[in-house]
Amino acid sequence: MTLGILGKKIGMTQIFDTKGNVIPVTIIKSEPCIVTQIKLESKCGYNAIQIGYEELRPNHKTLTKPRLGHFNKVNLAPFRYLKEFKISDTSIYEIGQKFSVDMFQIGEFITVSGLSIGKGNGGNIKKNHFVRGAMTHGSKHHRLQGSMGSGTTPGRVFPGKKMPGRLGMNNCTISGLEVLAIDKNENLLVIKGSIPGKAGNLITIKSK
Prior knowledge:
Blueprint: E1 4-16, E2 22-30, E3 33-39, H1 41-44, E4 48-55, H2 65-72, E5 79-86, E6 98-99, E7 109-115, E8 121-122, H3 124-128, E9 165-166, E10 171-183, E11 188-192, E12 202-207
Antiparallel strand pairs: 1-2, 1-12, 2-11, 3-4, 3-6, 4-5, 7-10, 7-12, 8-9, 10-11
């Protein structure tokens, strides 16, 4: 796994290329991500780099004493989000090292991961693409679940049965997104196409 950074989705817009073609783009806002911990295989069983995103005040109400002590041990400000990236070689990294959007290049293809938009409870037609029942001739089965299995034997519903339930809010990853523009002053990435989640969603960005 390669090292990446964290950011937030600002929203979508469109730009025009030199030929006048309309290109849908997504704007991503990031901040310098700080290395907060280096995990070694000799101590933790694997090599990884932990980065922090979105700095907080030391007296912020969401910070617990163990979490605050994690940052005090390395003399760093606390962060709202932490993310680990498994790295084969950790010798080139150090505590407090910063990474931002300048680690990417225009024209580079990246991978973006995040949570998809939550849609609440969904029925089987919307969630699992079931076909509805007849709407005429006295049918009373329109959008209902229908039979779930046999009766007496085994007399239960097997695990994994497709049923209504929570829809959306799943981890999604999209690869091969092209970087069209980079604003290093505002820490903005402009990428071609759409990414998971709504505006303000926390996402992970790394090289493809």
